[in-house]
Write a structure and sequence with these properties.
Number of strands: 7
Keywords: Coiled coil
Radius of gyration: 26 Å
Protein name: Transposase
InterPro entries: Transp_IS110-like_N (IPR002525), Transpos_IS110 (IPR047650), Transposase_20 (IPR003346)
Helix content: 40-55%
Shape: globular
Number of helices: 13
Largest sheet: 5 strands, mixed
Coiled coil: 178-205
Strand order of the largest sheet: 3-2-1-4-5
Distance between the termini: 75 Å
Order of helices and strands: EEEHEHEHHHHHHHHEEHHH
Pfam families: DEDD_Tnp_IS110, Transposase_20
Oligomer: single chain
């Protein structure tokens, strides 16, 4: 009897679909399985490779299947799509996952442990609260604009706006609603401050985060996010590969032996890319005000390039430095300008 060599698993909330193939890629079975019976099904299967898309819940099921002894491979959904045949359903998706996993050059996603996901949850929670705070500030500013009250942009100006507006010509019926929003804003500010302290504590206690914070432009938030969300540095052959994974490299439209590069691809990890760009923009802003080190790369770039272009280029450079520090397990050392 031919044994199954690889199984493509299409996961969902309640109904799953599995597609099994032998060592030569020939289909052996394709069946639908309920959530409660999934682990029992794989426990009865011989040890094999199980492939599934890296989507919501994938890391949980990968850990569960790995405990049963299977070799679990997670594939980015974008790499599975080319193998989907006409139409789309669970059976076709499971077959496409199975076929994609058999390609020798396929790229896989590292399975995260529960501790890694928990570390990333702290940053995700803070990011959510910051977005909610921004929405609330915009709502307060928008409503007060209807009564002729305006203030400069930024959270720091909301308090002054509150004092002036509440003490003056707001209608009596509008004041309770404004007070509700202001109380929510104060509560969000308190929770964000608590999370900032927690992130700073974790960054001080983690060796990798302390090493990353030696890079100019990377603080506790960026360092803990990189340590929690980025795959192992050994996954990438060089720093450029890590920068490309973050989406900080140019788009390529090369053909006929002619190299054509476009704008930044933005095709990678958007969270870490945003943090690196925010950090690099802070470095560029300080260099614009106080001057970059004489003879440095940053000084040469600012002398002849637009500021935003320099910011993204510096973020790319920071990504490569991050990879180098993680590989070599060293602290950042500022380059010394060559003597004339």
């Amino acid at each position: 009897m031919v044994e199954v060599s690889i199984i493509g698993l299409d996961i969902a909330k309640h109904v799953f679909h599995v597609h099994g193939a032998d060592g030569k890629g020939r289909a052996l079975f394709s069946k639908r399985i309920s959530r409660v019976k999934l682990l029992d099904f794989f426990a009865a299967q011989p040890i094999c490779t199980v492939a599934l898309e890296a989507c919501g819940g994938a890391h949980h099921w990968a850990r569960q299947l790995a405990q049963l002894g299977h070799n679990v491979r997670l594939i980015p959904p974008a790499y599975v799509k080319p193998f989907v045949k006409r139409q789309k359903n669970d059976a076709i998706d499971a077959e496409a996952i199975c076929e994609a996993a058999q390609r020798p050059s396929m790229r896989f996603v590292a399975v995260k442990s529960e501790e890694q996901q928990a570390a990333g949850l702290v940053f995700r929670t803070r990011d959510l609260l910051v977005r909610q705070r921004t929405q609330l500030i915009n709502a307060i500013r928008g409503h007060l604009t209807e009564y002729g009250w305006i203030a400069p942009k930024g959270p720091s100006h909301v308090a002054k706006l509150e004092e002036d507006a509440m003490a003056s010509s707001l209608p009596e019926a509008a004041r309770p609603m404004l007070r509700v929003m202001l109380d929510l804003l104060a509560e969000l500010n308190g929770k964000i401050a608590d999370l900032d302290q927690e992130i700073a504590r974790r960054a001080r206690e983690d060796e990798v985060s302390r090493r990353l914070m030696t890079i100019p432009g990377i603080g506790p938030i960026s360092a803990t996010a990189i340590a929690a969300l980025a795959p192992p540095a050994e996954t990438f052959a060089k720093g450029r590969d890590f920068a490309a994974w973050l989406g900080l490299t140019p788009l390529q439209r090369s053909t006929g032996g002619k190299q054509k590069l476009g704008a930044t691809s933005k095709m990678g990890e958007r969270t870490l890319r945003r943090l690196l760009i925010v950090g690099s923009s802070a470095v560029v802003q300080q260099a614009s005000k106080r001057g970059a080190p004489k003879g440095s790369w940053l000084e040469q770039m600012l002398a002849g390039k637009p500021r935003m272009l320099v910011t993204v280029a510096l973020a790319n450079k920071m990504a490569r430095i991050v990879w180098a520090l993680l590989i070599k397990q060293e602290n950042y050392r500022a380059p010394v300008a060559a003597k004339a």
